[in-house]
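pasting for ref
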Amino acid sequence: MNCNYDAATETARNYYNSEDADRFYAEIWGGEDIHVGLYQSPDEAIATASRRTVEAMADRLEKVNQTSTVLDIGSGYGGAARVVAKRFGCRVIGLNLAETENARHRELNVAAGMNEQIQVLDGRFESIPLEDQSVDVVWSQDAILHSGDRKTVLSEVNRVLRSGGQFVFTDPMQSDQCPDGVLQPILERIHLPDLGSPGFYRQEASNLGWNDLGFQDLSHQLVNHYARVLETTRQREAELEEKVSEAYIQRMKNGLQHWIDGGNAGHLAWGIFLFEKP
């Protein structure tokens, strides 16, 4: 058992299960999606931009139909799962480590009349609780960074994908040209030794024999997103303090600024990957 990713998994699980995090993401992100958005204007609503990312990722999936099974690893509140299930009429499995988020995910599925179409599993993506070659698509949004063993995550994705299956995902990353040491404030915040990079994911995909169907580089949207979240947090700070601890809000503001600074310096990367297993 790898202690590194066990520690990272437990850190992420405790964070996303915390009352402060749950309330913050529900209030600021809108309670459906917790990931980087695609912004058409600087003042666009976070929920609107976040949903646009889901649609952009779904647009790249040309082979999904009603007979398909899609696995969302790091599924959060299930916003993407519901969009995908409704759009394609397919079965969706959401795998997520935070029981607090999973409980809300299930509640929202029931409210949408989709609890039969979407299954929510408690678990981690370093050890996916599914059979070999059992899904047609693996989907992930801004979740793999939380793993201390991303190679194992990709190996697990490969294991559960059927031949011809696809892996579509986003992840906040360091740029391929990022100097050593400059991201330490970010890494300390998320309790990890490093981030992935576009080059890392492409190399690991090549090692697994996957076909690279293209990386859509949208790194500028990482700064747009965290700047919008920071601005919204500041605007609503007095209201938030009635629901979220002052210490959490301050740590969040500091953390968001580190992401913004890293992105503006060209040290961070983000975008949409699509790979296919032969």
